[in-house]
């Protein structure tokens, strides 16, 4: 683990670490704390002295910096990716998603401590939170190369809605966040990499390739723990996934899907395609 800042005091429980990240507004401090706490979690795990999970209620909404201004998706100006302004806006949007993802992964840790889970559940989300923190910093560095910074442009409000909607339902959270929203990231990232390949921006290509590779893991963690809980409650995972998406997700699952990376992440076509078909999309079966 790199880029950690040892100057942070480490809270005594993992849940307190999570709430500390969630209540930190400044993006560099939030991601710095996130990385330092993750490093400490894994250091103690390796030493055979794991940090207790504890319990520490997280805020309903995470603290966020004053900039960027958060607008409804309709108000966020659209820019063409073929322009410098468009590429800047794309990186800014990804930075915003990554910062949100840092909070989402710490939130799942602190929010559901009443549900007894194996310690590997916490390993996976701490790992994910650490990677999202790195992703945010990679995007920030790319923005700086382009003479910009996170906060310069407005960003989407409403990204926390999925967290609020599923604040009392761990299986709903796993369904909507890693298995729908982060899986969507796998679908769209290759196209973004292509934009920066055409523009010959190697730092952005490298950063997005790191993100692309590591996001498969986050979807896989979601799928793993979703299936685990289905097994615990003896329910059919596919039917339950469909039920929870219909209940909690306010949008359509839209093709084209990255079927190969979704499969790598343990997300089979019969999970997502029937929902896309319900929304009117059709698939050409080979
Ligand atoms: Fe990420
Ligand atoms: Fe992620």
Automatic annotation (TrEMBL):
Pfam families given in the database record: DUF455
SUPFAM superfamilies: Ferritin-like
Entries under InterPro entries matching the protein: DUF455, Ferritin-like_SF, UCP012318
Name of this protein: Ferritin-like domain-containing protein
